[in-house]
Amino acid sequence: QQQVKQSPQSLIVQKGGISIINCAYENTAFDYFPWYQQFPGKGPALLIAIRPDVSEKKEGRFTISFNKSAKQFSLHIMDSQPGDSATYFCAADSGGGADGLTFGKGTHLIIQP
Amino acid sequence: DGGITQSPKYLFRKEGQNVTLSCEQNLNHDAMYWYRQDPGQGLRLIYYSQIVNDFQKGDIAEGYSVSREKKESFPLTVTSAQKNPTAFYLCASSILTGVQFFGPGTRLTVL
Q: Which of A6, B1, B47, B50 could form a disulfide with B66 if both were Cys (CB 3.0 to 4.6 A apart)?
């Protein structure tokens, strides 16, 4: 099963709050989990990525938490700002997959001022 | 200045017309990809190519064609057989596996 399931589909958070987006996968061969951020009319840009040998990775206000046994990973945005309003995609790669990344369906995040 | 370029940014197609979307990269990446994005659908893979002169169908290849004559170029043709081509098209490239880098996209509208 190649799917990556992402939730929620949309999310509204107050400025200064924590935004949390969750993803789950079935394929245990996945070994690389990037998150992409996309603004309207633009291409997705790599935000942060993790490999399953660590349980957490933090870059500024963005943190990935990874639970290998549950096959779940999540993105946390601390102190959310209006400029964080965008669509976020999780993805997974198995390293040997010729067709590259498997993407979640995206989360439309709105940060209210 | 390395990166991926797509042109045009906006494209309009009449019924029954073929159109070609350009994608160029100077990152020296081996693999290139085309995705279609519709609201609420996420990214759907159309075609991908790992090396020059070789490419594979993705999940929604019907009505599309590609070529890979040069490492840095991967044009996508939307043919008249594609019945609902209005969408945002994204090109990406990568070293064979792992992180993909995306272009700015082309928005195609059928008139």
A: B47
CA dist B93 and B70 (Å) reads 13
Q: For testing the chain A interface, which of B5, B37, B46, B60 should be mutated: the one with the most A CBs within 10 Å?
A: B37
Pairing of strands A107-112, A86-92: antiparallel
Model confidence at A1: pLDDT above 60 = no
Q: Where are the alpha helices (DSSP H) in B1-111?
A: none
DSSP, res B14 = -
Any chain B CB within 8 A of the CB of A52? no
Residue of A nearest to B47 (CA): A99
The reply to whether residue B100 touches residue A100, judged by beta carbons under 8 angstroms, is yes
Q: What is the pLDDT of residue B41?
A: 77
By percentage, how much of chain A surpasses pLDDT 90? 81
Mark yes or no for CB contact A95/B41 under 8 Å.
no
Tokens of B109: 């509208």
- Whole-angstrom distance, CA of residue A74 vs CA of residue B41: 20
Stretch A95-111: mean pLDDT: 84
Other CB atoms within a 10 A radius of the CB of residue B89 amount to 22
Tokens of A26: 């079935």
